[in-house]
Amino acid sequence: xxxxxxxxxxxxxxxxxxxxxxxxxxxxxxxxxxxxxxxxxxxxxxxxxxxxxxxxxxxxxxxxxxxxxxxxxxxxxxxxxxxxxxxxxxxxxxxxxxxxxxxxxxxxxxxxxxxxxxxxxxxxxxxxxxxxxxxxxxxxxxxxxxxxxxxxxxxxxxxxxxxxxxxxxxxxxxxxxxxxxxxxxxxxxxxxxxxxxxxxxxxxxxxxxxxxxxxxxxxxxxxxxxxxxxxxxxxxxxxxxxxxxxxxxxxxxxxxxxxxxxxxxxxxxxxxxxxxxxxxxxxxxxxxxxxxxxxxxxxxxxxxxxxxxxxxxxxxxxxxxxxxxxxxxxxxxxxxxxxxxxxxxxxxxxxxxxxxxxxxxxxxxxxxxxxxxxxxxxxxxxxxxxxxxxxxxxxxxxxxxxxxxxxxxxxxxxxxxxxxxxxxxxxxxxxxxxxxxxxxxxxx
Length: 444
What we know:
By secondary structure, the chain is of the alpha+beta class. It is built from 13 helices and ten strands. It has two domains: 43-54 and 150-368 and 404-416, no CATH class; 57-146, 3-Layer(aba) Sandwich (Glutaredoxin), CATH 3.40.30. The chain is globular.
């Protein structure tokens, strides 16, 4: 009898323990389910929250023997702006003594080539490169020119619009024809109206439907607030801004037609739409992309190039997070802990809305933005590449700490593996719960 009483006592104790254990397993199953779901944070907000490392523009100060004292103020100003936290400019400065052959040869091939293509001179010069590794300009910078390079009224306005939470900004770069400029402005006005009226359906992971009215669009992004910024090519205050826009893609500098550059995130601009490509449908697709479900893994797999800005992007991300509340990707801004798991979505699940500059234009090779978002000093390292770029090299960048893959194929594999593991883990949890129920239930 004593043994029976002990068994009954143990059963009574085991019952609440069993319930707690099953509840814990149920929570684990829920977490596994959440981990397998799709990311629904819009691209423009996910980019603002998480693409924290803005790709740097790299300046090389080329001199002979000793740096010229006349350039000290300009170089110190550039370094100070780059170190001016929290609104540090995304620019780096590297001084190079070209009389030192070993030092010169240690540079990436594109820098050596640019230097050797310059007219022979004993005067120092600054070589300015975009994050894509293309030469923006070669000239001797003074303090005034350094400040114009780093910031301008147009870029300040763009940063403000993005911080306010606009679902992208359409940057209109004017052309030579006033008539064409007016036509482009009318198209942009109509796109902004459509966005505000809820007539632009965000790209998402749901199956396509014939009627947009069938979609559940009862979200903050049902009527995206699209911003507009017009930049005149002949504005002297925007000379560097204009050059940056014309270097987003090859062969733009000679084109005098008006262009529209969609911008989002922390000052990232997409490839432009030109002349006949500036249509309500095309620009609406760009808005649909930035307001659609995020492709949450790798920054450089999303279109565009970062602008050189002097802005506190962490404060901007905080402002956007406070406006829209807790959502996947902004946990670190709202101190939500692990409320939302980190999700990988295959890059090929988002639509390709690149607007080519011309029918024959080729896609831009992102040779210098392979793994961003990690933070780092933006230092220049000798290129170690193979293939067509091995001879000239490329501007090296810090490696990303964000989830990354080397190709869309690798990204898709990571996504599939992650989802399969999540499903298997959920099944295993259910099986453990059922097993525990039968093994630990009290017996008469």
